[in-house]
Amino acid sequence: QVQLAESGGGLMQAGGSLRLSCAASGRTFSISSMGWFRQAPGKEREFVAAISSSGAITYYADSVKDRFTISRDNAKNTVYLQMNSLKPEDTAVYYCAVKTGTNWVVPSSYDYWGQGTQVTVSS
């Protein structure tokens, strides 16, 4: 069993930066690939970024590529999402989750979701 807790969200002006953290409990963190998703009001949950257990492999949605960076510190059981050049369309609740399935970009491949952290970007 893994429990996840996101933090670091907030209100930011367009062009600014935020770093989200996802702290995990449980022994399986270091062997688990992790992902970040987001959900805006009235929209489906969408893939943002993912990282392999070692951190050697990363994936990004086209909408955030070159602006967001996913990383992890297995010694701290934490995965991060550095968000730069924020845009109003990045406004959403951001969730981290443990990848248990085969597909990197669909929510159904992930379990053990956190409670989410709100990111609001003003224009």
Could you describe the 3D structure shown?
This protein is mostly beta strands. 0% of the residues lie in helices and 49% in strands. It has strands at 3-7, 10-13, 18-25, 34-39, 46-51, 58-60, 68-73, 78-83, 92-99, 110-111, 117-122. The strands form 2 sheets. Strands 2, 4, 5, 6, 9, 10 and 11 form a 7-stranded mixed β-sheet that branches. A 4-stranded antiparallel β-sheet has the order 1-3-8-7, with no helix packed on it. It is globular and about 40 Å long. The termini are far apart. The model has no long low-confidence stretch (mean pLDDT 96).
Quick structural gist:
The protein has 123 residues and is an all-beta fold.
Please specify the SSE layout and strand pairing.
Elements: E1 3-7, E2 10-13, E3 18-25, E4 34-39, E5 46-51, E6 58-60, E7 68-73, E8 78-83, E9 92-99, E10 110-111, E11 117-122
Parallel strand pairs: 2-11
Antiparallel strand pairs: 1-3, 3-8, 4-5, 4-9, 5-6, 7-8, 9-10, 9-11
What is the typical, i.e. mean, pLDDT? Answer: 96
Distance from first to last alpha carbon: 40 Å
Number of beta strands: 11
The gross shape turns out to be globular
Structural class: mainly beta
Instruction: Please tell me how large the radius of gyration is.
Output: 13 Å
- Discrete helix count: 0
Biggest sheet descriptor: 7 strands, mixed
Residue ranges: pLDDT <50 for 5 or more in a row? none
| Secondary structure: helix percent | under 10%
- What's the order of the H and E elements? EEEEEEEEEEE
- Proportion of beta-strand residues: over 45%
